[in-house]
Structure formats: structure tokens, C-alpha cells
Amino acid sequence: MRKSEYALWALLVLAVLAAGSTMVSLAKSQSASAANSEIYRQLDLFGEVLERVRSDYVEKPDDSKLIEAAINGMLSALDPHSAYLNPKHFRDMQVQTRGEFGGLGIEVTMENGVVKVVAPIEDTPAAKAGIQSGDLITALDKEQIQGLTLQEAVEKMRGPVNSPITLTIVRKGVDDPFDVKVTRDIIHINPVKYNAEGDDVGYIRVTTFNEQTTANLQKAIDDLKKQLGPKLKGYVIDLRNNPGGLLDQAISVSDAFLDQGAIVLTRGRNLEETQRSNARPGDLTDGKEVIVLINGGSASASEIVAGALQDHHRAIILGTRSFGKGSVQTIIPLGSNGALRLTTARYYTPSGRSIQAKGIDPDVTVEEELPDDLKKKADELSTRGEANLRGHLKIEGVNDDDEASQEEAGSSSYVAPEKEKDTQLNYALDLLRGIKSVDTETKKKAEAN
To answer: pLDDT tens, 99-114?
Structure first.
């Protein structure tokens, strides 16, 4: 009898457990089913609207353009950096990351319905025409941009080589919009420029992070070593107004100055999507002192490099606060239909700092000396950073009430065209030569000499 009672109780316990498991599974299934039902209801609504437009709009619409616009509308509601790339735009993007493409030579984003210049690329038609970081482009050949997607606006700015286009510019500090005529050209991106400053300092300017950046950086370091020999005291790495580029190039550029340790951490929505990139042994500069210049136009990949070298105390970061783009975009090919550029992760510096909507604060804050005619407009010349972009990803782990106080706006992106007037560069050279010392505690503001 005792064995029978034990068997009966065991059966009852198993039955209860099975019933509980069934109820939990049923609840999850019902929850998933409810969510799916809501999605299908919304898709039905979209289908109804689409059919109404196709049947009743005053003119016969282009079905493919309607669908593409709907996709772009969905992605633009996520954040400023997610977008659909149709087949042509996808091909253009692939060409651009290889370091050669057709166009004006500006890195742009969309803000409040107009195109905002993140940074002009050096030695391109846009840069030669005087286009500046922070400029807002409101019209192309007198046609308003309002209502266009970023990709459509970029498409209009592209065209045959030697063909002109007129950009209508709104610039902070200038009362009225003005027109700038730019002639399109093939844009050959040389991502690294370098020269010796005197007989003891190597100056390396990194303008973008494309497939050629790391190889060109290595060549620059090798050439400067040979040119300066034992007199070489260190390097100035200039990342000012560098809008970013390829993540793997940011990692390999950082690795060029590090022997070990983490370079960047990327975290997606799920914990299993966390990745860590580490430095490999071998510092190309042989441990020489490094100073990195940043400003309000330094974004994305530039911030990864500055953050990694700052956290490892491998470089002094000098200048003004960076742009604050701390998200990673993944290009997801869609076969013959182009590709999806989707924000899939946030990135963090080796110490776990998120740069999103905050930027990198320099170890030594040095404001670039403005010409006399711009000093009265210094506040107006400050570049709007990631925190100012509509729909940007918010800072993690803060309440809405605290968010505004923790986010940081952009800083000035002005760089003097003449090196002798470049306050930040000359301050960095004085640091390397021992003429000035670093005061990281007070982060003192440098005065122009």
C-alpha cells in the first residue's frame, strides 16, 4: 500500500507540473499570438492605405516609389542613421568605402527636413567652394529639399563629372541664405595626409576611415620614421572634422598604437550579441608620444580611436568635445533589391563608456582661435552634435527627466586654414616639445599665442 501511495503522489506531482508548464506555454503562445495579431492588423491598414493611394490619387503613382518611400519612412522613424539603400545607392556606397566615388565631397545627414553638412572632405569641390561643417542645405538648383529623403537629396547632388549644381546654404552667423555653385567631380579620397613638423614631430591627418586608411597610416608612420630618424619625438594624429567610416578600420588604426587590451566593445539588443575587439602585440610608433586632435566634427570611427587611446592612456586627447555618434550601422544586403543600413549596436570605449549623444571630452580642452570677424559669432558657430539630431538614440540607463542634463551638444568645428594660426595644432606641438605641460585636472583652456 505504501508503494502505491508514493506512486499516486508522484503521478499527482507530475500532473501538476505538466499542467503548470502547459499553462505557461499557453500564456506565452497567447501573448505572441496577440502581438502577431496587432502586427497583421497594422499591415492590413497599410495595405488599405496603399490601395486607396493607387486607385484614388489624382495621378497614377509609381508603385515601386511608393513602397520605397514607405520603407524609408519606417527606417527614418528609428534613428537618423538607419536607411534603405536601393540597388544604385548600395553600389555607390560600396564604391565610396573603397575610396573613390562621384559627387561633391561632403558627408551629410538629414535634420528637420533639410540636409546638414557633417563635414566637407578635403580637396574636393565642396571644400574648395567653402562649404563648412554645420551648414544646412535647403535647396538644390533652386528646388527645395523639404519632403525629400536623405538618399533622394544625395542622388540629386550626384551627376555627370564637370556638371554644376547650385546649393542654397543656411549658415549660423549669416543672416540670409546664400547660394554656392559647385562643379561635380570624381572624388578620390586620400584618407591619410602627413608631413614633418620641423625636424622632430610627425603630423598625420586622417580624413576618413575607408578601406585604404590603415595601410596609408602605416606608410605615413614608416616614411616619417625614415625622414626624422632619431630626432622624432612623437606624433600628432589629427582627427578633426573626420566624420568616421568603417568600424574595422577604426579598430585597426587604434591597434596601430596599442600593444594589448580592448579597443572597442559593441553591444546589440541581446547580451549574446556583445563583441569585444582586442589589440594585437606591436606598436607601430615604438611607444613614441601621441597626441590626438578632435573637435565637434569628429564622429563615429574617429571617436572609437580617440576613446580607445584615451582609456589606455596611450595618447593625450586635445581639442574640443566630439560629435557623439556612438552607434554601429550594419549593411544587410537584400539581394537584387539593394541593402538595409540598420543601427544594430551601440559601441563603448574599453572602460565601458558610451559616447552616444555625449561625445569624447578631451584631456586638454583647447578652443581653436577664431578670426576677428568670427569672434562675435563664436556661439553660433558651434556644431550641432548627435544629441541635437531628431530621433537620435537616447543615453542608456537614465530617466527622461535626467536625460537632457546628461546629453551634450556639439562643439566648434572650426580649424584655421593656415597652420601658423592653428591654435590646437600648435598647442599639441608645444606639448610634444616640452614647451607646454598637460594639466588634465583643470582641463585648462589654451590661449592663443
So the answer is: 666 789 888 888 888 8
